[in-house]
């Protein structure tokens, strides 16, 4: 991963940090190498899922599991927070409803679902940056033309309330924070 890739990744992690209080049980979908756990100290238990994970890890409070969500989850204990950093645009459109329902089902009442989604213009910018070899452009070919504006509708009707939508990185990235209702 190049320096610019890390910079972009760190900006996303900074946006997530306020929703992960110490002791939180966190599910990180599309976790890469589990960098979120290393960058946010004090998490209670971290479970990272990634279909492209090279090597699983199973340590106290830190697990990296190879496989898709929700199929690869070993148990059904709910999480305080579920994180999807630049993941949803990689999900085929016909699987988004299943993703949303699984997120709602695996989130504790009062828990947060935190999502970052790049704006549509980002793909063209990333193509140029990859051409110039300034970024690695991990899995750009997997983007499905997802529009960030679709995000609230995908998670509607699932006992999740949209608490925040914010653009960041000059409007090129979007933060969505949902909270699971305490009672339906």
Spell out the blueprint of helices and strands.
Blueprint: H1 3-16, E1 25-29, H2 35-39, E2 45-50, E3 57-59, E4 62-66, E5 79-85, H3 96-105, E6 107-118, H4 122-131, H5 151-154, E7 160-168, E8 173-180
Parallel strand pairs: 1-2, 1-5, 2-4, 5-6
Antiparallel strand pairs: 3-4, 6-8, 7-8
Description of the structure:
It is a single chain. This protein has 184 residues and is an alpha/beta fold. The protein has a single domain, classed as Vaccinia Virus protein VP39 (Rossmann fold, 3-Layer(aba) Sandwich), CATH 3.40.50. The protein contains five helices and eight strands; from the N terminus they run αβαββββαβααββ. An eight-stranded mixed beta sheet has the order 3-4-2-1-5-6-8-7. The longest helix is centred in the first third of the chain and has 14 residues, at 3-16. The model has no long low-confidence stretch (mean pLDDT 87).
List keywords for this structure.
alpha/beta; Rossmann fold; 23% helix; globular
């Amino acid at each position: 991963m190049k320096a610019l890739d890390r910079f972009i990744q760190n900006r996303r992690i900074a946006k997530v940090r306020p929703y992960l209080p110490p002791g939180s049980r966190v599910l990180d979908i599309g976790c890469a190498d589990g960098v979120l756990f290393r960058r946010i100290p004090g998490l209670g238990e971290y479970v990272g899922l990634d279909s492209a994970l090279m090597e699983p890890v199973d340590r106290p409070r830190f697990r990296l599991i190879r496989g898709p969500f929700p199929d690869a989850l070993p148990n059904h204990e709910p999480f305080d927070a579920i994180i999807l950093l630049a993941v949803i645009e990689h999900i085929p459109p016909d699987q988004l409803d299943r993703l949303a329902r699984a997120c709602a089902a695996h989130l504790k009442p009062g828990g947060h679902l935190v999502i970052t989604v790049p704006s549509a213009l980002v793909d063209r910018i990333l193509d140029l940056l990859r051409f110039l070899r300034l970024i690695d452009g991990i899995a750009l070919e997997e983007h499905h033309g997802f529009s960030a504006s679709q995000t609230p509708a995908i998670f509607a009707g699932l006992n999740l309330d949209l608490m925040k939508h914010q653009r960041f990185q000059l409007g090129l990235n979007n933060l969505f924070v949902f909270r699971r209702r305490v009672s339906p």
